[in-house]
Amino acid sequence: MLPTAAAEILRRVHAEPVEIEELVELASSDPAIAARVLSRANSAHFGGVVPVETLHDAVVRLGTVQTTATVTAQALKLILPPSSDLPVIDAGWKHSIACAKVCELTAGEFGVSPTAAYTAGLLHDVGRLALIARYPNEYSELDLIVSKDEAFDPIECERRLFEIDHCQAGDILVTDWKLPEKLRSSITDHHQDPQLGDGSLLRAVRVSCAVSSSIGYPEPSRAGVSSGDENLAQSMIEPQRRRSRIQAEIESEFQRLLHG
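Now predict its structure.
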């Protein structure tokens, strides 16, 4: 499970507002994270004419959204390393990153900050990543079954196979890692039927799940969305050039976060 230091980093980095100096402090607390932040800042996508040599300059170059994304992804890699021969691991990471990117792009539609939206999307399926990490072969078999037969309820299948579903697992992790409460509902309730009092982050995650699944980054079970949010999801991926742009940004983000 996640080391205490990484859990503390996750907790603090998602407690808004996050200032530049705090991001520098967080990144410097772990050598692997510090190296990753510096590497991303000097990558072809973000690099300038002059290479950055300090964490402060790296964080300034990346900005709060990308620094937070880098720190979060590096911490999550401790749970489930992305390099594996199992397709379910690759699919789990791609769906989470796709949802995060779509959340960031649609943050304004829900009145939330791009950083909050991105990180809610990246963390919404953390319970699934944890289950895959614990039971990789069993989860691969489950994924194969539910993808071939829509009669199977993947949430119920998780409960029968693991005695817990990924939303319940995520709820436990929110508590254990002391993550901000504002993230809990997007992790625990993104498969629930929409309710009148649902918060903006939860709505953003649900819509982004729907969009991600529609453009090729599915999860075993589709998040429920209201008719209004369903219309928003559809409008986001039409016309084709918009869908292609979103897909390109997701693929680029996937490479930058996990392999860049």
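The chain has a mean pLDDT of 83.
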